[in-house]
Amino acid sequence: MIATLFAFKGGVKPSAHKEASTLAPILRAPLPPRLVVPLRQSAGGAPLPLVVAGQKLSKGERIGAPEGNFSSAIHAPTSGRVLAVEDRLLPHPSGLSALCVVIEPDGEERWIDRNPVNYAAATPDALRDYLRDAGIVGLGGATFPSHIKLKPGASGRIETLIINGAECEPWITCDDMLMRERATEVVRGIDILRHIVSAERVLVGIEDNKPQAVAAMRAATAQSPGVSVVPVPTRYPAGGEKQLIRVLTGIEIPYGRFGSDFGVQCFNVATAGSVHRAINLGEPLISRIVTLTGNVERPGNYEVLIGTPIADLLPLAAPKADTDRYLMGGPMMGFTLPGTDLPVTKASNCIIAASKALFPPLGTELPCIRCGACTRACPVELQPHELYWFSRAKNFGKAQEYGIFDCIECGCCAYVCPSNIRLVDYYRFAKSSMRTLEREKATANAARERFEFRTLRDEREKAEKTARLAAKTAAGRQAIAGAAKPSAAQATTTAPAQSSAEKPLAPLDEQKKALIAAAIARAQAQRAGVQPKNTENLTPEKQAEIREIEARRDKVRELAKTPPAEPV
Amino acid sequence: MTAMNNSPHVHLPISVRAIMLKVLVALLPGIAVYVWFFGAAILVQIALASAAALAGEAVMLKLRDKPVGLFLSDGSALVTAWLIALTFPPIAPWWLIVSATLFAIVVAKHLYGGLGQNPFNPAMVAFCVAIIAFPALMSQWPAVGFTDFAAQMRVIFQSQSAQDAVTMATPLDALRTQLHTPEARATVAGILGSHATFGNIGGKGWEWIAMAYLAGGLWLLQQRVITWHVPVAFLGVLALVATAFSLANPDSYAGPTFHVLTGGAMLGAFFIATDPVSGATTPRGKLIFAAGIALLTWIIRTFGAYPDGMAFGVLLMNMCVPLIDMGTQPPVFGRKDEKRDGNTP
Q1: What's the structural domain count of chain B?
Q2: B260, part of any domain
Q3: Smallest Cβ distance to B334: which of A253, A334, A337?
Q4: In a domain, B340, yes or no
Q5: Taking all residues of chain B, what is their mean pLDDT, rounded to a whole number?
Q6: Which of 209-238 (B) contact A at CB < 8 A?
Q7: What is the C-alpha to C-alpha distance for residues B9 and A340, in angstroms, rounded to an integer?
Q8: Helix (H) or strand (E) segment spanning residue A484
Q9: Of A93, A406, A416, which is closest to B5 when you measure between CB atoms?
Q10: In sequence order, what E strands does A118-246 have?
Q11: Where residue B200 falls among pLDDT bands split at 50, 70, 90?
Q12: Taking burial as the number of CB atoms within 10 A of a residue's CB, which of A96, A156, A301, B339 is the most buried?
């Protein structure tokens, strides 16, 4: 089947460096002495821990429950004992710590009861829930929960399923090797995904620099009608989800929209493989293939348990002596790891040992000469140099107007910039500043609302107090009036009803007088109450002393009244 | 910004210096043909302009507290200097090119903020300043055949007033003064046929220099230093306007081949209007920018007081660049239906 391809604009062709890590087959990484499994490994809420320190675990046992529907479960990668549930540093560009389950493997690899699902008989909803509980997330690096992507969007249904085997980032070969060695697993996963969304056609996009993967996938899909394996031109970022959808279908999905809104959805080949394992074998997502490459003696791909510390993996590849840092992900979008004691997560597709020779530091940043190389390279068709000026000037409104949030941070612009400008860093700065400003605005709004509510409450309470006081006074008046009334009432029993309305006016003066009298009495009593009462039973000496003091005070007062004759 | 989040970790081996060097290399064929027809004086002018540009650049960088070595070696000052030399008469006095170059570097470039910040094309600023201040000197072009180096040097350095024997009006100048002044009686065909300045198409020598610039420009295009938009729109619109008027009145208006191959048209199309710093950056913007320059160039050439309108056209369009860029932002990926305004090229 020949599919028409639609080129996306922009893109770059960095050296691939993929050969070295594809020479050896995928090996299983040995069981490390400790596993550190982060609970938050996908977009969405952080799963809640289901285990406590000391607890025994089976392989595949759920240790993190999905928090809400926009989250995915986490499982024990092996059998063993929980050592701790504590905050650990995550391998994430944020450099933040989060809750992790630390497991000491017992080496038995004792599985939970694995229950394969007959997906053909299950409803799509049940399968989606099952995938959420099996911890299936996108393994291309974004770790977006797959069950959410499997929901039909605004268009009602997903007609075209895109399977992403492009793997456009240099150095990374985990998907390539997976397709070469486990094409059948991938295809069985594709069958399930296709069943869930009832897609009419499936397009497997693979960059044409992976002929072996293309051949393997073609062989595996030979019996699947409606599935075509399409080699796509090798051009970074052809493996970006939206770029691949564009190349294969011509559909452009803007920022903030899902493919499902356009009747198309995209899954990574490794995700498809993990879907197969979850449904057909009953095994949750507890391992992934990681490429170990770069400045190493033995580059290759390893099947690694999630939570394996990177430091335990590195000896497998034997980094060379001049390695000065490690990258996670590819060189275009990956980040420098703050250390090697961090665990492999569902997002860790590649660890690259970097050296000054392999990744020479960028030269001094020169001014932008508006040459337009970045514009030609931008796959989202932005004007990167304009965004740069706006970000630099902190003109965030303009940056937003020019589409800074459409930027996918693929790095093409910075890759081609002749002035060595770290363009993506400027965009990250602008984006995070804008998000911070939004947050601050939200906080300020909340504070203002709180303040306004408090003012309102104070006023209300004051009003209530006044009302209460008024009621009390009225009650007092009534009590007095009531005391005076009986005689008046007796006198006016025969009077017509209308005069009773006037009647209270007559005794008002009396009532007032009574009130005033009562008030004076109260005040007198109060004064009497506060006046010092300890002067009565003092000794005569003390009384004399007080009198003396009073006399002295009077004298001083007198003196103070007469102004001095002349200025002192 | 976090220090760890610094992707991409790889970079294309490309630099501002490499781009500027390519521009200089692309000028070499034109310079070679220039020397062939008009002698080695142009080389002296290039040397003078280069020295002035580098000196001015160094002083300004020092004053502005910028790394002198880094910026001096970016080659941008040399490009400006060479373009100034190539647009000035090759027998202009030495102080004219030196002061004009200094003005370009000091005022038009550094006072506006240096590399990447100047709103006006520095070389064209130099040309306009010189032609307004010294119109007579800027109109002294060597006659074809005046290639005696010693004589040329005397004109340049001893400020000998050039004699009519060695100077000559450029083809453009001749056409303008003889066709569009009140007492003009000549026809295009008559002038082109009679005048010694005129060669086969765009003026003796000049047409060949223009062809050499074209060759260099095509190489720049192939090297992706420039895009097709500016040269195509500039030469296309210039040819279009010239064709329209010469068809309507062939006696009064020169045809497209003459306009495209004479004066600064070809140099401007590939080397001046393509200056990224002072030009428009969006594809549609580049087309509008270049078309505007072409139109202004033709109008000034035909009806204006100055022999060539390229420099004024460039500066006038430089002023419009922010507006052009703002109005021609291309739609973003996935948003083509939202922004479409039916005005795409």
Answers
A1: 2
A2: yes
A3: A253
A4: no
A5: 86
A6: 224, 227
A7: 18
A8: helix A423-491
A9: A93
A10: 160-164, 201-207, 227-232
A11: low
A12: A301
Specify whether the CB–CB gap between B42 and B34 falls below 8 A.
yes
Residues 162-221 of A with CB under 8 A from B: 170
Mean confidence (pLDDT) of chain A: 88
pTM metric for this prediction = 0.81
Q: What digits encode the pLDDT tens for the residues A488-500?
A: 445 444 444 444 4
| One domain, residues B65 and B185 | no
In CATH, what is the architecture of A365-484?
Answer: Orthogonal Bundle (1.10)
Q: Which of the listed ranges A323-332, A511-520, B187-196, B204-213 does the model predict with the highest average pLDDT?
A: A323-332
Under 8 Å between Cβ of B238 and B264: no
- Reference A250, options A3, A2, A11, A1; nearest CA is A3
| B95-115: pLDDT as tens digits | 999 999 999 999 999 999 999
Question: What is the residue whose two structure tokens read 């010469």?
Answer: B246
Quote the tokens at residue B287.
């087309």
Q: Is residue B2 situated within a structural domain? A: no
Q: How far is CA A9 from CA A299, A426, B328, in A?
A: 33, 22, 18
Q: Residue A94: list chain B partners with CB under 8 A.
A: 2
**Planar angle of CA A234, A237, A242, nearest 5 degrees:** 115
Q: Tell me which chain A residues have a C-beta less than 8 angstroms from the C-beta of B5.
A: 93, 335, 425, 428
Query: Are B151 and B186 in the same domain?
Result: no
Q: Tell me the two tokens of residue B204.
A: 């003796």
Question: What is the tally of helices (H) and strands (E) in chain A?
Answer: 15, 17
pLDDT in tens, B222-250: 999 999 999 999 999 999 999 999 999 88
Provide the domain limits for residue B116.
Answer: 14-168
Angle at A63 between CA A58 and CA A65, to 5 degrees: 140
The Cα A245–Cα A112 span in angstroms is: 38
Contact A295, A353 (CB under 8 A): yes
pLDDT at residue A533 in the model = 55
Assembly ipTM: 0.87
From the number of C-beta atoms within 10 Å of its C-beta (0-12, 13-18, 19+), residue B24 rates as middle
**Which residue in this structure is represented by tokens 């005397």?**
B154
pLDDT category of residue A505 using cuts at 50, 70 and 90: low
Verify that B253 and B179 share a domain, yes or no.
yes
Provide the number of CB pairs (under 8 Å) joining chain A to chain B.
Answer: 146
pLDDT value at position A345?
Answer: 94
